[in-house]
Amino acid sequence: MDFSHKLLFDERLYDAQVLQKAAYRSINVLTVDITSDGKQFVCALSSNIGMDEQSFLSAVQEFKKDALDYQLRHRLAVETQPIKNLILGLAFSKTGLISE
Amino acid sequence: MSKFQKLEFYAQQRPYELLPFKFDRLNDNEYVITNMAGEFHVIPVPMLESIISKTLPLTSELIPTLRSKQFIRFTNEQAPLQLLALKIRTRLSRLAEFTNLHIFVVTLRCDHSCPYCQVSRQSESKGEFDMTTEMADKSLDFVFMSPNPAIKIEFQGGEPLLNFEMVRYVVLKAKKRNVKEGRDLQFVIATTLSLLNDDVLDFCKQHNIVLSSSLDGPMDLHNANRPRPGRDSHQRFEEGLKKARAALGYDQVSALMTTTDKSLPRARDIIDEYLRLGFDGIFLRTLSPYGFAIKTKKFMSYDTERWLEFYKEGLEYIIDLNKSGIRFVEQYSSLVLTKMLTSEDPGFVDLMNPAGAGIAAIVFNYDGSVYASDESRMLAEMGDQTFRLGNILEHSYEEIILSDQLLDALENSFTLSAPMCSDCAFEPYCGAEPVYHHAIYKDVVARKPESSFCKRNMAIFKHLIELMESDEQIKRIFMGWANRC
Question: Which of B78, B167, B255, B310 is the most exposed, having the fewest neighbouring CB atoms within 10 Å of its CB?
Fold first, then answer.
């Protein structure tokens, strides 16, 4: 038996990439069709073939948590990207691997 | 009048800045956060949003820890950036040294017929499965092209003692060349010890050759896993071990175990056998999906969940041993803990990123083929030549090391750009493992949520962190494992 569930995410609060990443993380249990109605992302979740209901419901819950986590990761990554590049620049300068 | 300002004078007035870090849920109540160099800290779930929103009060007890582990910094502080850069350089320093481990498959012949054999061994009489001197010479040319100041040559099979003349040839030739080269040259023979004799031991002693062997557990389990004519594999191992230790030194012989379905209910028995035979550690290994392990369906005989139960039971027992004063190490955990608790990378090929294939270890096969790793040649014995980098008689060092087969695998599996891995808090402890993922999923990256490698390692990382967080004594034991001399 197949199971399905629909979730709505406000576009002012979530990025599409964030939902895609959360969907990818759930790929072993369910698939997600992501569409937009202009204000909200609509995520249609469907269980993989042979998945039982309990596993699917747990995965739906995980998907919601993952969406929040990935949104927070996105915020952190955007804010720290310049300093990350600086640290990597410091780490890989003067390696001596390329003759000057 | 006091010469010193009051404490309040030094109190930070401005909010902190975030440094790059990753996080993942450890359980329902806690997150693990890891910095760019892999140092970790565990925080309660509600704390994460506060840290990232910078609403955590500067008086919070967490602030000094977050600063000292470079998750945050105060405005204009330069030291955290320099420290992170230094730690990252230290962690990746092995890359600049390039290939260390060079595996010579001197024969595919073997006196054992293990159903889980990952290299698809041949019977003892088939001489066409032996390496020739011409191949050995060319392979040594290749070995000394590596810029690494430390070179390890490991002889594998089949059973390398069935072609001991080739082992002798390579060792003598390599040592002769090394007079000029001046490398730190080490030799290892991977052997079941079943064919060990005084002649072999004399040669090993003379040239400081270390023996790496296999022990699957108590006699009944070992002999069931590792059949040979006479059903005496364990007896021969034990006799060989005594002789080798007496001749070469107690610590010059190590052993590896492989977990079969028969091993799963016997974690304690296996560890007890290692203790009885005087080993100071054990490597709790899964079956690799190669060779006869696939053909005989041994690989499918248990799943990741069941192996994790086995691992956790074994680890719990080992921790109890350590608590009672018996120093004994679980070696896979020790490798992971070294990555978690120090800035060193132990250089274990499975847990390297970029993958260790080719650039940490390389294999010269008995037929002249060069492979990116031991697993790659195992795969080739099953007819899959994806990671065959060339032929030692036909191709140059540059052609092999710069081959598309190698570079594509390294680049495409790089975890910092792989889906899911790039955001994973445990990425600094994990590895790319393109060969494993190709073997199982026909894709060097694979879908990580479906990967048993990901599932197994993620569970191990979380388990080790939870153990350290729950018990200070375990943390001290693990610190000892991570900082072994």
Answer: B78
Q: Is B432 helix (H, G, I), strand (E, B) or coil?
A: coil
CA distance B86 to B343: 9
Query: Given this model, what pLDDT does residue A33 score?
Result: 98
- CB of B33 within 8 A of CB of B49? no
Cβ distance A24 to B420 less than 8 Å, yes or no, reads yes
Q: Give me the residue spans of the domains in chain B.
A: 16-91, 98-401, 411-470
- Asked if residue A35 belongs to a domain, the reply is yes
CB-CB contact of B81 with A86 (8 Å): yes
Chain B residues closer than 8 Å to A88 by CB: 85, 88
Contact A27 B447 (CB under 8 A): yes
> In chain B, positions 81-140, which contact chain A (CB-CB < 8 Å)?
81-82, 84-86, 88-89, 92, 96
Q: Do B145 and B397 touch, CB atoms closer than 8 A?
A: yes
Please tell me which of the candidates A25, A87, A90 has its beta carbon nearest to residue B420: A25
Q: Do B23 and A69 touch (CB under 8 A)?
A: yes
Q: What is the residue whose two structure tokens read 């300002």?
A: B5
Query: ipTM of the predicted structure?
Result: 0.94
Identify the band that residue A100 occupies on the pLDDT scale cut at 50, 70 and 90.
Answer: very low
Cis bond before residue B158 (omega within 30° of 0): yes
The CATH number for A76's domain is 3.30.70.60
Residues 6+ apart with CB under 8 A from B294: B382
- Interchain proximity B20–A25, CB inside 8 Å: no
* pLDDT > 50? residue B93: yes
Q: Suggest the residue from B22, B36, B90, B98 to mutate for an interface test with chain A (most A CBs closer than 10 A).
A: B36
Question: Among residues B134, B132, B135, B105, which one has the least CA distance to residue B120?
Answer: B105
Cis peptide before B354 (omega within 30 of 0): yes
Report the SS3 class of residue B292: helix
Please check the confidence at residue B278 and state whether its pLDDT lies above 70: yes
The count of structural domains within chain A is 1
Q: What is the pTM of this model?
A: 0.93
B98-401 carries CATH number 3.20.20.70? yes
Cβ–Cβ gap B447/A73 under 8 Å:
no
How many CB atoms neighbour CB B127 within 10 A?
A: 11
Strand B72-73 with B17-18, pairing:
antiparallel
Q: Which 380-439 residues of chain B touch chain A by CB within 8 A? A: 419-420, 423
Does B447 contact A91 at a Cβ distance shorter than 8 Å?
A: no
Residue ranges of chain A whose CB lies within 8 Å of a chain B CB = 21, 24-29, 65, 69-70, 72-73, 75-77, 79-81, 83-84, 86-88, 90-92, 95-97
Of the ranges B173-187, B370-384, B454-468, which one carries the lowest mean pLDDT score?
B370-384
Q: Stretch B182-195: mean pLDDT, rounded?
A: 96
Among A83, A85, A93, most B C-beta atoms within 10 A, so best to mutate, is A83
pLDDT in tens, B9-64: 777 677 899 999 999 999 999 999 999 999 999 999 999 999 999 999 999 999 99
Is the residue at A21 inside a domain? yes
pLDDT, tens digit, 9 for 90 and up, residues B243-260: 999 999 999 999 999 998
Whole-angstrom distance, CA of residue B213 vs CA of residue B240: 10
